[in-house]
Structures are given as structure tokens and as C-alpha cells.
Design goal:
five-stranded parallel beta sheet; 252 residues; alpha/beta
Length: 252
């Protein structure tokens, strides 16, 4: 799932009943991975499609009823649905310092389904880059954040932008989006607050990155997903190795 721009522009479907659609997709996937010959009649999907040549099909893949399903949700209602029906969450527009604006909704959905938040694998993270020149590291992240705030949706619907607004960055998120959509991309990147870029990533010296690891862990993130900085594959691997050294050191 995504927002209206992608669903309507790329998939050719109307962006309506997104939560119902997502719920039905999850159920269909569970039936298919469980080895069933899939039939389904919902509000959005009906399998096989009536009135044609379709018939109920079974996947030729080995049944895997234990395959976990992750949802990358952002809106409060989408987060609640994740807590209710998914095995894990892929967090974006996420800052562990403001984790509860996401996790409270996931937990509410989990409780509605009679389970705890601990049942879900909560995945989140950001870019990882090491160095003493923190200002330079922050500047390198701002164009990507400006793209997220400005381009990942329309003026009416940008769920990524909305998430940063809920975290307390409403003025900056609104202004970055306006500048981006007006074609002023460098100005949009410059308007991204240092504090936002810092909290959404793991940047700086070993001590600073180690502290960010602690914040992610204390926020309840169970799996850290990172984008290691580097101009070449070897450099990216070196960054990842340096991060793993810090993770392993903290486990001792």
C-alpha cells in the first residue's frame, strides 16, 4: 500500500478503503502461504473473480504458514491495524525520541486483538555515518529528508510528512513541503531542521552513535534497519562493520 499518488498513478486503482484493502490483502497472503486453494470474498477483493474464467488456485511453493507479515504503516489507523493483524512493523519517518506517536497506536491495535506489543517485531532505523564533522553529516541527510517531506505524496496526502508533524515538526514539515513542491529543492533541504536530521539517523562519533543505539533500544525497537554511508560497497561494508562492533560491544 501507499498514498494516492502511487496507488492511482502506478497501480491504476482508486485510493479508497485503504485499511479494508490492506486487511484483505493480509488475509489472502496468509491463505496462499499456508498452502490453501485460495477463495476469498471481501469488500474489495473476490477470488476467483466472478463472471470470468478464473478459478481458485493454490501456490506451487512449499506451504509456509509461519511466514511473518510486516506492514509499513504511518497513519494512526494504519498503525492500529498493524498491531491487530501483522507480525511486524517497518517504521519510516521514525525518530526513537518520539516513538510513542507510532507505538501507542500499534499497541492499541494489538490489545484489541488480545495480544501485547511484545508479539510484534518493530523495525526502524536510519542512515549510519561516522565522523567528527557532524554538521557535514547532517547536511548530507537533508536532501533525502526534504524529498520525503516534499515529494512522497501530494499537498493533500503525504503520510510521511504527517508523521513528522505529529512528532512536533509541523512548521518545518509544512514549509519544506511547500518549497519542494514549488521547485525550490535546495531551499527545501536547507529548511530541514538539524534536530530532525539527527534524530532520524545514527550520525557522528562512536560515542554519539552508541548513544543513538541506546535510544532506539530504549524506545522499544527490536530490529534495527540501517543504511550505512559510503561511496563504494567496501566503504558501506566498513561503516556497517563499525556499527556492528558498537552493537556487539554493548552486548558484552
Amino acid at each position: 500500500m501507499s498514498g494516492p499518488q502511487v496507488i492511482e498513478g502506478w497501480h491504476g486503482l482508486r485510493f479508497d478503503r485503504p485499511l479494508t484493502r490492506m486487511r484483505e490483502i493480509v488475509e489472502i497472503v496468509r491463505r496462499a502461504t499456508g498452502g490453501e486453494r485460495v477463495t476469498f470474498k471481501g469488500q474489495v477483493y473476490e477470488l476467483p473473480r466472478p463472471g470470468g474464467e478464473g478459478k481458485a488456485l493454490r501456490s506451487s511453493a512449499q506451504p509456509r504458514p509461519d511466514v511473518p507479515i510486516y506492514l509499513a504503516t504511518l497513519s494512526p489507523r494504519g498503525l492500529e491495524l498493524t498491531g491487530e493483524i501483522a507480525d511486524g512493523w517497518l517504521g519510516t519517518s521514525f525518530m526513537p525520541d518520539h516513538a510513542r506517536i507510532f507505538l501507542d497506536h500499534i499497541e492499541a491495535g494489538a490489545r484489541r486483538a488480545g495480544r501485547s506489543l511484545a508479539r510484534l517485531d518493530l523495525q526502524a532505523g536510519g542512515a549510519v555515518a561516522f565522523g567528527d564533522d557532524v554538521e557535514r553529516l547532517l547536511a548530507a541527510r537533508k536532501p533525502g529528508l526534504a524529498f520525503t517531506l516534499g515529494a512522497m505524496g501530494s499537498r493533500e496526502h503525504n503520510f510521511y510528512n504527517d508523521a513528522f508533524k505529529r512528532a512536533g515538526y509541523a512548521d518545518a514539515a509544512t514549509e519544506v513541503q511547500r518549497l519542494w513542491l514549488d521547485g525550490k529543492r535546495e531551499e527545501a533541504a536547507a529548511r530541514v531542521p538539524d534536530d530532525l536530521a539527527r534524530k532520524a539517523n545514527l550520525l557522528g562519533t562512536d560515542a554519539m552513535v552508541r548513544e543513538r543505539l541506546r535510544v532506539y533500544r530504549d524506545a522499544g525497537v527490536t530490529t534495527l534497519r540501517v543504511d550505512p554511508a559510503g561511496a563504494t560497497p567496501d566503504a558501506r561494508l566498513a561503516t556497517l562493520g563499525r556499527l556492528m562492533d558498537l552493537v556487539n560491544h554493548d552486548r558484552r
